[in-house]
Amino acid sequence: MPVPTEAVGRIERRCAAGGDLAELRRDLVEELRRSVGFEFYAFLMTDPRSAVGAAPMAEIPSVPDLPRLIRLKYLTPVNRWTALTTPVGLLRQGGDPARSLVWREWMAPFGIADVASVVFRDRYGCWGFLDLWRTGKAFTAAEAGFLARLAGPMTTAMRSGLAETFRQRPPVAERTGPIVLMLSAELDLLGQTPQTSALLRTLVPPSPGRAVIPAGAYNVAAQLLANEAEVDTHPPYARVHLSEGEWLTLRADRLGDDIAVSIERSSPAERLDLFSRAFGLSAREAELLRRLAAGADTREVAQLLFLSEHTVQDHLKSIFAKTGLRTRPSLLSHALGS
Questions:
Q1: What pLDDT, in 10s, does the model give residues 120-156?
Q2: CA nearest neighbour of 74 among 232, 207, 260
Q3: Are 38 and 147 in contact (CB under 8 A)?
Q4: Phi and psi (nearest 5°) for 107?
Q5: How far is CA 94 from the centre of its chain?
Q6: What is the DSSP string of 209-222?
Q7: Its pTM surpasses 0.90
Q8: pLDDT one-digit tens code per residue, 217-247
């Protein structure tokens, strides 16, 4: 069955409307479900620099088995979002699906017949990925083309949505930390600091009556395992928006045979990088912003970057236009969260 052409317009209009990122993603999933059809999905925002999952949204056949699914997903090079050279990859289009570790060991027992993997990437970073799972017929080339056509508008909408989080001011009070949780190499939860559960509940609110699932921690830990298996070289960390303009950084590292995941408030440098990428600043504009954040004035920035003061002012005007902010103090306050 051909994909309805009116669906492209509906999804493009929804992307242009923007709004809350969680609501946007839910709306996009439902539009895609009506347009191409699938039974299950996993839709993750990713840290634009590390490409590690940071804000998961999913419907899967076995929620208790989520840690194993994430572990296998990160250890599978086939159609991995960091390796796709096109916006869309189809599992069955490449031949035998059993070449995929996650399909062979996790999806096949649930009757998954095909997976369409979409990566949302532009020149500023990787903003997320979406896997659509079917239990019936395979995805067609026409359906892959439909998804590829929409990858661009969806990427822009996701990046713009993250940019909007910087327009909010984070709370003044400093969060104590870092807080830590411990995972086994199989991503079993071994222990955590007392504040961890409350914070994870804020990051990914559980369904009523369900326990908190540390999905963000599973993702950074799985990326560490991918590093160790030489499947992918991106660092095992991810920055995730909490609320009211506040960003947290999750990092995974080995502690003996186990994996320690730390969660702490993102540093000024980490926020500046995110801010620059989300608002689409050029490399020169991002460097200028870093110099201003370090305390340099226009004359000092001009000297440091070997530019005229007039050119520095032009770059600054461009930054103001992209961010919608009008003064240097306001720009730095929103970028740094201070």
A1: 999 999 999 999 999 989 999 999 999 999 999 999 9
A2: 232
A3: no
A4: -80, -40
A5: 26
A6: TPPP--HHHHHHHH
A7: yes
A8: 999 999 999 999 999 999 999 999 887 778 9
